Amino acid sequence: MKKILSLLAFTLMLGSCEKTETYKEVDNDFVHNFDVAWNLVNENYCYLGYKNIDWDKVYDEYKPRVENAKDQFEFFDIMCDFVDILRDGHSAIISNFDRHGSNYAVESNGEPSPEDYISSDVVASYLLKMRVTNNKFVYGFIERDNRKFAYLYYPSFSVELVNNDLEYIAPFIEEADGLIVDIRNNPGGAGVYGLSFAGHFFSEKTLVGYTARKNGVGHDDFTTPYGVEIEPSSTNNWSDKPTILLTNRSVYSTANLVASALKYAPNVTQVGGRSGGGGGLPETYYLPNGWAFVFPSNVIYNTEMQHIENGIEPDVEVHISTEDKNNEKDTILEKAIDELLKQ
Asked: Which of 77, 186, 187, 244 could disulfide-pair with 336, CB 3.0 to 4.6 Å?
């Protein structure tokens, strides 16, 4: 039976999700460190089954390379390749001389993800006046066909939308006929900030997904899923405001979670490209040589128990063509305006 996890408990988990495995003595044996890393992923990584990764085959392929490593630098480079197999932007290997995170900015076929964003200058050309708060939130009005729409760019959830920002932004939104929230290129940040922001678009407590933790050697061994609920914001609540959420493939981690949560906000429509994904909660383990090894052990689902790891599909898919980019036309923003004009 699925349980309900309070928003407070869930966001605390998002904000402090490090598990530490410590060792009293430093052991620099390459094979031993590799074996520990392989077993940590085998028992704790939450997406081996979902991504259909043959982890035994990975061991057979990498063990000879590790055995032949000449020094710690070559061993580190091997471990970088090892981490990349996960294709998970929440995974990384960190030594005292270098660090490497997995590259999630490519598609499964190796092709670069579509950018679907031109520049802030192009966005500014759509606004009557671009304004920027001290915390780098961009906002302003867009006028079209005698209607006025508010625009808000949230660049990173490493920063909270607080009263100092809302003092200026909220009146713009209240005055407008609709709202465009742009989270394109938002890499994520603190879960508590993202879900708090999502609360501005709900009028009642709403179930938006589930989370479960890997808890066994089997690739599909997980704890009983806990439901994640969002509490509506008691102030500056915009749940009755027609809202368009702009996304692209560089929307990741907490920003991806926000895109998933806002699927359940009745007045929010997602426009643009599929978000970049990142549905796990990263944890930090330590290898015997002291290197940090980061990867997610907690998985997040939507309310239909579907993974959000590979991104959230938009309600209206739009991309910026090369021609539009050359002409400095933000096709996605244009579509958002069109969608609001229909409402």
From this structure: 244
Q: What is the pLDDT along the chain (343 residues), one digit of tens a residue?
A: 455 554 444 554 554 444 444 444 578 899 999 999 999 999 999 999 999 999 999 999 999 999 999 999 999 999 999 999 999 999 999 999 999 997 655 565 666 778 999 999 999 999 999 999 999 999 999 999 999 999 999 999 999 999 899 999 999 999 999 999 999 999 999 999 999 999 999 999 999 999 999 998 898 899 999 999 999 999 999 999 999 999 999 999 999 999 999 999 999 999 999 999 999 989 999 999 999 999 999 999 999 999 999 999 999 999 999 999 999 999 999 999 999 999 8
Measured over the CA atoms of residue 291, residue 292, residue 297 and residue 303, the dihedral's sign is negative
Nearest to 226 by CA among 203, 208, 204: 208
User: Closest by alpha carbon to 38, among 78, 90, 98?
Assistant: 78
Q: Enter the pTM of the model.
A: 0.90
Interatomic CA distance for residues 341 and 343, integer angstroms = 5
Phi, psi dihedral angles at 227 (to 5 degrees): -75, 145
Contact 296, 88 (CB under 8 A): yes
- Nearest to 259, CA basis, from 331, 190, 174, 181: 181
Residue 135 and residue 159: Cα distance in Å, rounded? 7
C-alpha–C-alpha distance, residues 227 and 33, integer Å: 36
